[in-house]
Amino acid sequence: MIQHLTSLPVLLPMLAAVILLMPPCGKSITIRRAASVVLSIVTFFASVALLLKVQVDGTQVYAIGDWSAPFGIVLVADPLSTLLACLTALLGIVCVLYACAGDDEKGRFFHPLVHFLILGVNGAFLTGDAFNLFVFFEVLLISSYSLLMHGGDKKNTQAALHYVIMNLVGSAVFLISLGVLYGVLGTLNMADMAQKVALLQGDDVYLAKIGGMLLLVVFALKSALLPLHLWLPNTYATAMPIVAALFAIMTKVGVYSMMRVYTLIFGEEAGELSHMAQSWLWWLALATIAMGTIGVVASKDIRKLAANLVIVSVGTLIALVAVQSVEATSSAIYYLVHSTLVTAALFILADLIGRQRGDIADRITAGPAVSQPRLLGIGFLIAGIAVIGMPPLSGFIGKVWLLKATLNAEYTFIFWPLYLLASMAILIGVSKAGSTVFWHHQGKVTESVAQERVHPMQLVALIILISGAPLMSIFAGPLSEYAQGAATQLHDFNYNIKVILSGGQ
What we know:
Layout: H1 8-21, H2 29-57, E1 60-63, E2 74-77, H3 79-99, H4 110-126, H5 130-149, H6 154-185, H7 190-197, H8 203-223, H9 231-238, H10 241-247, H11 250-265, H12 278-298, H13 302-323, H14 326-355, H15 373-388, H16 394-405, H17 412-439, H18 447-450, H19 456-466, H20 468-474, H21 476-491, H22 493-501
Antiparallel strand pairs: 1-2
Helix pairs in contact: 1-2, 1-4, 2-3, 3-4, 3-10, 3-14, 3-19, 4-5, 5-6, 6-8, 6-9, 7-22, 8-11, 9-10, 9-13, 10-14, 11-13, 12-13, 12-17, 13-14, 13-17, 14-15, 14-16, 14-19, 14-21, 15-17
């Protein structure tokens, strides 16, 4: 079993989804819930076991069918990919637990779809092959299409259709870019591509650049980078909040892909194509931060606010990717984990608040008081402090670290003022939302709504996410060391090439 550990974060969700479709899970919702919770926990522990193994033994390479790279399909587990696999599995547990309170009753296939989504995301993080990155993208997208429609109405359908059309175009561009790169390089194994890019000459250089820039378009769409971000606010705001919380990791797949491709393949050792996307990433990231911040201030409900905070986090991460340094990448890794947990928590809080305010729901306007103001207020306060970046929580540590990492960057004189102004605007937006919802009361709710209470399963899911901010602050030392190690290895070109092409030996 230990030799197959690298494949378990991908295989276990697939097995879980199949089991949940079959009797008795497919017939009984009680059995389906229990099985889904157990299987999601098993996936999480398998991901943690893989992370620990990577820490002890170094990068693990799993050759599917015993066909070694670059000829066969390989899964590559390094500190960065295993950390993100653990984060995905944790969000899966949260999603399943929260849905067991009743949200999963709106469709029989909710639980299988969640596990299929985890399969696609973990596969995208662990694959060492560009074509299979496309395959796993499609798996997670198909699952996300269906989850968007779960328990939906006309509004959900419109947002889902927009999402589907945008991503179908992205998939077509992805295939074209892979075709161009394969025609030039003769391989789609990322390590082998990185070796051959530096050897290109003449017209092949321009063809490879075209393929690389098309990939940038694809990853910008997946991560919601401006101007390809327009699908995200409405999609996340109209989806079921717990689905939107799970989707918080999906934009990070695009960010991760940029880290991989533009650090390993088109990084320092790429010859004429070295850092080909860096200037583009800088300006697009800055524009995304600005646009997301405007969206935060203008948001009319908490779900829209959380969706725009996702856009701000994407812009911040891409700016750090554009710096192309170990320090910037390490701060990006820490900030990625922090932002994913916090934004997911905000989507859940938006749902819980909305359930206790009647027809006003989570709109940022004076309305009836919530039934549990202390519980939800404290949760919103912790999430708000974390997302704003105020001490002593993880947001403050992440903000200080990323500002330090960009101190000597090319466009620091623009990034610092923009980011600090954005932080001030987010402070205003989040403070306005919290004060309006919890302090400005107007009207009364019906007796049924007034008796609405947070379900124990929902509370456990919320606590898991909310506790991330203080825990990441308490354990900032070990986490920062881990992030530094993961970033150092990501930028170690020779080591990555050697270990992947040698099969991890």
